[in-house]
């Protein structure tokens, strides 16, 4: 990632990283890299994409938003 204000800045991914750290990683106690990878995958596939409401999408989950806008 680049410095703040750089045209190559990726604010969306930085926001996602902040969210996943706050909601999953900060309170977790992983015993291995494989366990961390599995928990992150499960978080994204079973919660973030399907259940977590996003204010930018009128408080819909990503999955529901994609169903309405194919």
UniProtKB/TrEMBL annotation:
Q: Example GO biological process term?
A: DNA integration
What range(s) does the Integrase catalytic domain occupy? 1-69
Q: Which InterPro entries match?
A: Integrase_cat-core (IPR001584), RNaseH-like_sf (IPR012337), Transposase_IS3/IS150/IS904 (IPR050900)
Q: Tell me the Pfam families matching this sequence.
A: rve_3
What is the protein's name according to its record? Integrase catalytic domain-containing protein
Organism annotation? Enterococcus rivorum
């Amino acid at each position: 990632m680049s410095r703040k204000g750089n045209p190559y800045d990726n604010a969306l991914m930085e926001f996602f990283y902040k969210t996943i750290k706050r909601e999953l990683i900060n309170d977790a106690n992983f015993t291995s890299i494989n366990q961390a990878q599995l928990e992150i995958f499960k978080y994204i596939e079973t919660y973030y994409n399907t259940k977590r409401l996003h204010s930018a999408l009128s408080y819909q989950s990503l999955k529901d938003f994609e169903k309405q806008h194919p």
